[in-house]
Amino acid sequence: MIEFDRVAKRFPDGTEAVREITLTVPSRRTTVLVGSSGSGKTTLLRMVNRMVEPSSGQVRIDDEDVATLNPVTLRRRIGYVLQGGGLLPHRRVLDNIVTVLRLNGVRRRSAEERGLELMDTVGLDRALARRYPGQLSGGQQQRVGVARALAVDPNILLMDEPFGAVDPIVRTDLQNELLRLQSTLDKTVLFVTHDIEEAFILGDQVVILKPGGVIAQQGTPAEILADPADDFVATFIGAERGQRALRVEDHNGTQVVVDGRGRPAGVLAEGVPRQ
Amino acid sequence: MNLFREAFAWLFAPEQQVGADAVLVRLGEHLLYTAIAVVISAVIAIPIGYWIGHTGRGKQVAVACSGAARALPSLGLLTILTLLVGVGDAVLAATVVFVVLGVPAVLAGAYAGVESVDPDVVDAARAMGMTEWQILLRVEAPIGLGLLLGGLRSATLQIVATAVLAAYVGLGGLGIYIIRGIAIRAYEQMLGGALVIVVLALVLDGVFALATWLITRARRTPVRPGDLGGPGPAETAAGTAQDQTSRSPAAATEGSS
Amino acid sequence: MTWVGANIAQVWNLSVLHLWLSVQPIVIGFVIAVPLGLVAWRYRWLRGGLLSVIGLLYTIPSLALFVLLPPVIGISVLADANLVIALSIYAVALMTRFAADAFAAVDPVVRRSAVAIGYSSWRRFWAVDLPLAGPALLAGLRVVAVSTVSLVTVGILVGIDSLGLLFTDGLQRGILAEIATGIVMTVVIALVLDLVIALAGRLLMPWARRPPRRRRWLPWRSSRTSARGATAAEVAE
Question: How many CB pairs lie under 8 A apart between chains B and C?
Fold first, then answer.
């Protein structure tokens, strides 16, 4: 469990990135921080592994104040995935995956064995182990980034817009992969995105942030859809444009679901005639 | 072209093969002075350059230093220092001048190398739990090696060229043939000496080019068409420093979103 | 400093001569290097070969070049032309790479939109490519100018007069002030030329004066993003 206790962050240039946020991130669930740029979502995420120090307030992991922990040891037990993977360009894929294991003093042989298993876990062909990151596609690099974060089997996984740099088809793949992984791994995932669709797909809990670092609403996707807290949230999730207000129309016996403007969004499964 | 034939004849004449004035002895002197000065420059400049690159502090000072080093006439430095320490200590004076001219180039290579590393990569390394030393030694230094080699390369060539001038203040080395040839109006000797100097410079340049190529070759493979996103192949060769310029501002805005 | 007082006329004459010997190769080098840089940028297959061959010229130590050049082109070692041509070669060697990089750095989107508006390639070069590459070209020219002024002094070793005369004469006669004056005047000429080029750039390209940017704060290396071009120039040289 990660708890943000009235944390705030003001940068030396006067920007207020986060304003007094209190938030609980439950264990073994995926919590998505979503907001436009300047909403402080990345700053909030980076407070967990002390990449950013809050100006005030406290961040606790399982009731332990992170400020009292050594940042280096703290970071080694938290997985971190960022956009583009942030892979070391001068090391091969497998060396990238086992970096932290090697830092922790695990022997090369057993670290590499574990690394290859992780490549299977994230759906990477083992044949890629000896390639350099520059020789992989964007989607593959991102998978390497996830494998690297999972290497030390951390309880917490921080993901900072990890799928922002890949094309929509690959992004869908990666999202599904993450859902599949999470169903078996049960990590405490804190995920940052600016894409509300992604937030609703991945999040058990979704936290919508307003510019200036304020929580607009938090809850399950269904709760937020059912009852947007204010106009900001309604606009952000697309409710006011009628995108979220779906109704069923009958087209020659097929139940077609349309949005507020009458654009088809899909078909109702029960209404599909069997072939 | 007759002069060149005479120069080669001079170069391969038996007198040039033996004794204290033999071409190989002068070449050895030249290389020794160069090597000593490059090593001293590197020992001074690499730690400072890494510190500047890693912390981002003192960059203006480094830039100003290399600007000043370019403006300072090396012959002027050589003569004034020789006069100050006495002609007997020409080696000391010359070495000081070599180092003064070598340090800025190595410094620039060292800090540019560290600075060329994608900030996202450094960020990821820190988030993984690398200490600042580990980031410097395992991430920034190896990725920046190509640019550091570029700096060492220009320092070496600068020092080789200045060592030619140092014959004027009595240092010896390959420049002696030119200086003496002018004094006694022996053009074949001047030309022969100049040819050896050019070959030396080109060979040293080639050695650095080869080293840079060997180090960066593995990571050079281009991203295949259709691939998206992510850091591209690390173009760390000395000549491709410019490729790095476009990348950082966008990445730096990630910090507080 | 009594030496300076007694020899002020000589110092002045040598300075003027030195300036004249510096300006010629700087101008010649620029005029030759910009088209070469353009060619290197336009024809990518040429770029690698052209830039490496030209780069090799720069590795030749200056004194050796002053000796090698006369028999090749058939002039006297003592001729001013020897110095001017040799330093023009260095200027081209340095400037061509700067020029190729300057053209490569022009935003391709701007270039494409110029084509889309209907510029012919000739007019696009003068109206878009050249002015947009201008600031980087001038930055390169400043590096060339400063190093040329310093290299002119080497000519004295083969008998071509310049402020370098103060170095050799000062060493032979043991006059410290004479050498010091030579160094100071060389640096002053370099700085003056540097300043003139910078000012010309400001007058010709007012858009290149960027407003002071608000710096992003990061917990480390806060000045990372500033002046990266300078870094590239340092190392390329």
Answer: 192
Cβ pairs A/C, distance under 8 A: 10
Residue B252 has pLDDT above 80, yes or no: no
**Could you tell me the residue ranges of all domains in chain B?**
2-220
B47 touches chain C (CB under 8 A): no
Which of helix, strand or coil describes residue A59? Answer: strand
The upper half-sphere exposure of residue B35, i.e. CA atoms within 13 Å in the direction of its Cβ, equals 6
Task: Count each helix (H run) and each strand (E run) in chain A, helices first.
Answer: 10, 13
The alpha-carbon gap from B18 to the nearest alpha carbon of chain C, in Å, equals 23
Angle between helices B145-166 and B187-217 (to 10 degrees): 170
> Contact at 8 Å (CB) between B120 and A69?
no
What is the rounded distance in angstroms from the CA atom of residue A35 to the CA atom of residue A136? Answer: 30
CATH class of B2-220: mainly alpha
Q: Is A39 exposed, middle or buried (0-12, 13-18, 19+ CB in 10 A)?
A: buried
Name the segment(s) of chain A with CATH classification 3.40.50.300: 2-236
Measured between alpha carbons, how far is A128 from A125 in angstroms, rounded to an integer? 6
**Cβ–Cβ contact C62 with B under 8 A:** yes
Complex ipTM value: 0.81
pLDDT in tens, A255-269: 888 877 778 888 887
Q: Name the pTM for this structure.
A: 0.81
Give residues with Cβ within 8 angstroms of A14, minimum separation 6. none
CA-nearest of B156, B148, B134 to B49 is: B148
Q: Indicate whether C1 belongs to any domain.
A: no
Residue C85: both structure tokens together: 């041509």
CA distance B58 to chain A (A): 20
Interface check C146 vs B, CB under 8 A? yes
For the domain made up of A2-236, the CATH class stated in words is alpha beta
How much is the average pLDDT of C37-41?
Answer: 89
What per-residue confidence (pLDDT) applies to C126? 83
What are the CA-CA distances from residue A179 to residues A30, A145, A155, A263 (Å)? 9, 16, 16, 29
Q: How many structural domains are present in chain C?
A: 1
Interior angle at CA B183, CA B179 and CA B187, nearest 5: 75
